[in-house]
Design brief:
Rossmann fold; 10 helices; six-stranded parallel β-sheet; Pantoate--beta-alanine Ligase, Chain: A,domain 2; about 280 residues; alpha/beta; binds pantoate
């Protein structure tokens, strides 16, 4: 496994890679969710590239950029074991030189939900992902379903900007009690960790209601809210039952359509998101 930092080093190493090349973009502090992206890329591509960069432009001014967990030595060790071919760990100055002034702003799909709770977040994500795609030139790029709106925003950007690559969205990895794996789970104390299962319990309750014949989107949102409101440590930012490609809320019945159930919930100071696709 080769590790590179600068753009010239990356470009030289990229020329040596056999096609197809798969890219798993990450912000490091890797967990089994990231490793599942790397593994799927390993299965489907001749070469696997992983980027590790904590992207400051996708964090709001009061978010956790300063405390975001980092452990590069451990990450590299894990990636070596997954047989990654190339790891790119650019510095801040490489991604955002002092005179940087070009941004990627995705429209409607980036506006509701995460977009409205975290202004500027998707501008930061789309910009850095566009830069990663341009630098690495992958044939396939691997993202997690856990960040469902991020995947929808990037899909729109890939289409609108004619990136010549296939987007692969991999299933969410969960703890045995259903908690979706996230680098931010390390912030939870034992009591909060127990409370954090409310997200998966809420999604499961709505899924069960749907399976039992409830197809009114608002009733499904209510089913999720009821579980979350019963958890004293949970502070709900949003609960949604939306159209998965556009992220627009569904009104009325699902009528056989696929729907994305999703939520953002603060457990103590830790903001968690989760989602589940139903129907279709
Ligand atoms: O999902 C993430 O870890 C980040 O948003 C990404 C895609 C690596 C961009 O910084």
């Amino acid at each position: 496994m080769k590790t590179v930092v600068t753009l010239p080093e990356l470009r030289a190493a990229r020329l040596e890679l056999a096609a197809p090349v798969g890219l798993a973009p990450t912000m490091g502090y890797l967990h089994a969710g990231h490793l599942s992206l790397v593994r799927q890329a390993r299965r489907e591509c001749a070469s696997v590239v992983v980027s590790i960069f904590v992207n400051p432009t996708q964090f709001g001014p009061h978010e956790d950029l300063g405390s975001y967990p980092r452990d590069l030595a451990r990450d590299l060790d894990l990636l070596r074991r997954e047989d990654a071919d190339l790891v790119w760990t650019p510095t801040l100055e490489i991604v955002y030189p002092p005179d940087f002034q070009t941004w990627v702003t995705v429209g409607q799909v980036a506006q509701p939900l995460e977009g409205s709770m975290r202004p500027g977040h998707f501008r930061g994500v789309a910009t850095v992902v566009a830069k990663l795609f341009n630098a690495v030139q992958p044939h396939r790029a691997y993202f997690g379903q856990k960040d469902a709106q991020q995947a929808a925003v990037i899909r729109q950007m890939v289409k609108d900007l004619n990136f010549n690559l296939e987007l692969v969205v991999c299933p969410t990895q969960r703890e045995p009690d259903g908690l979706a794996l996230s680098s931010r789970n390390v912030y939870l104390n034992p009591e909060e960790r127990r409370a954090a299962t409310a997200l998966w319990r809420a999604l499961s309750a709505a899924q069960k209601a749907y399976q039992q014949g409830q197809s009114q989107a608002e009733r499904l949102r209510e089913a999720m809210r009821a579980v979350l409101q019963a958890e004293p440590l949970a502070n709900v930012e949003y609960v949604s039952c939306a159209e998965p490609d556009t992220m627009q809320e569904i009104e009325g019945r699902l009528e056989g359509r696929q729907a994305l159930l999703s939520m953002a919930v603060k457990i103590g100071k830790t903001r968690l998101i989760d989602n589940l696709l139903i129907g279709g």
